[in-house]
Amino acid sequence: MTSTAPLAEVLRQRLAERRERNLYRDLKTLAAAPGPQAEVDGVPLVTFSSNDYLGLATHPAVIAAQQAGAELGAGATASHLVNGHLEVHERLQDKIAGLTGRQAALVFSSGYMANVGTICALVGRGDNIISDKLNHASLIDGARLCRAESLRFAHSDLAALERQLQRAQRNGGNILVAVDGVYSMDGDCAPLREAAQLCREYGAWLMVDEAHGFGVMGSAQLPAAGSAAAAGLGQDEVPVLMGTLGKAAGNAGAFVAGSRELVDYLVQFARPYIYTTGMPPAIAAGNIAALDIMQDDPDHRRRLHDRIGQFRRRAVELGLPLMPSATAIQPVLLGEEEAVVRVAGRLQERGFLVGAIRPPTVPAGTARLRITLSAAHSENQIEDLLLVLTDALAEYGINGESPGGRS
Ligand SMILES: *Cc1c(COP(=O)(O)O)cnc(C)c1O
């Protein structure tokens, strides 16, 4: 006889255990995609939890373009390589290549698929993939699935990165180094200039995930290209540039930008690109409109940076524990899962929605509120959030001292 248990029993037991550990996640159902205002169960809330950093998800010009795009057909009707690749996808890819200063770009249906597909296409058995320990789950899953030797280094620790590059060199094979440009749960930026220099010394290929950099930062020439451009790095230094369209673009989908050969290669070898239905044409059309705004209207970015400055200034005045982030992601590290659940619950009662981020999304002992700012927030909304947060932390005896030691 085998020792199998009934499915229902296994599910019940595992869910109960997750609840006991304060790790159970509730789905919140919203009436519509939130601007700063949202509605959950009929109750109005101000959201500080979305990744719509520029407010483009609810921009009238984007919505109109997406509606018009639906005239091209509701769906692409097949994978890109069969008959699901439309002119509107080509236009979007050209737009992305222009915004990122790359020769070419390839659109994927999601960032998760772009990361898994690109890593698995570029390295395999006999090669090496080196990752920062705080990389996004989709990069980690790509590293697991690709069958290359997977090496990890402590967060943004360049000496540790170099040790792994030496190890990879001893292993032989190609070396891909994958990092987030802006860390999704911490908001800090990777030391890209130094990492690129190390990659050059060891002949490694650098892949940067710009999910949280694209659209909101860049260089004088490429103001929306992301954190690699902000660090002065181009296609030679960062040959594999990945970005998502579900964050600052406010939409859905993702891209990899780089050389013409890289894009040709991914079309041939990236399985999550090949074996899935093409992006719906309306999504591509909406994305083009959002990227037009990113390109032509610097006001959204300017407003976002004003709000980030306001948030950090006031938080310091109020003695709130901030993390070293200059980006739209402003986490408040509380450590314990229970504290995070309680404070997020109290904020929701007082009209604010913030992310209660717990393991396994972040390392054990580093549970946090993930507050995200948007160009669409008013100064008053930010001030009100900070006052309510200060009260909630005081109520639970959290005194504004940073809980020591991030892992
Ligand atoms: C959101 C995110 C992804 C995944 O993108 P989706 O389009 O949502 O699948 C990848 N990397 C990072 C760093 C992200 O934050």
Question: What would you note in describing this structure?
Answer:
By secondary structure, the chain is of the alpha/beta class. The chain folds into two domains: 22-51 and 298-401, Aspartate Aminotransferase, domain 1, CATH 3.90.1150.10; 60-296, Type I PLP-dependent aspartate aminotransferase-like (Major domain) (Aspartate Aminotransferase, domain 2), CATH 3.40.640.10. The protein is built from 15 helices and 13 strands. The protein has helices spanning 7-20, 60-69, 80-84, 87-100, 111-122, 137-145, 158-171, 192-202, 227-230, 260-269, 271-274, 281-296, 299-317, 337-349, 379-395, and strands spanning 37-40, 43-47, 104-108, 128-132, 149-153, 175-180, 205-209, 240-244, 254-258, 329-335, 352-353, 355-357, 367-372. Strands 3-9-8-7-6-4-5 form a seven-stranded mixed β-sheet, sandwiched between helices. Helix 2 runs antiparallel to helix 12. The chain is globular and about 55 Å long. The termini are far apart. The model is unreliable at 400-407 (pLDDT under 50). Pyridoxal-5'-phosphate binds at residues 110-112, 115, 136, 138, 180, 184, 209, 211-212, 244, 246, 254.
Label the CATH architecture of the largest domain. Answer: 3-Layer(aba) Sandwich
Name given to the CATH homologous superfamily of the largest domain? Type I PLP-dependent aspartate aminotransferase-like (Major domain)
Q: Percent range for helical residues?
A: 40-55%
N-to-C span: 45 Å
CATH class of the largest domain: Alpha Beta
What's the domain count?
A: 2
Order of helices and strands: HEEHHHEHEHEHEHEHEEHHHHEHEEEH
Low-confidence stretches: 400-407
Bound small molecules, deduplicated = pyridoxal-5'-phosphate
Report the principal-axis shape.
Answer: globular
Amount of beta strand? 15-25%
CATH topology of the largest domain: Aspartate Aminotransferase, domain 2
Return the structural class: alpha/beta
Any idea what the radius of gyration is? 22 Å
Q: What's the number of helices?
A: 15
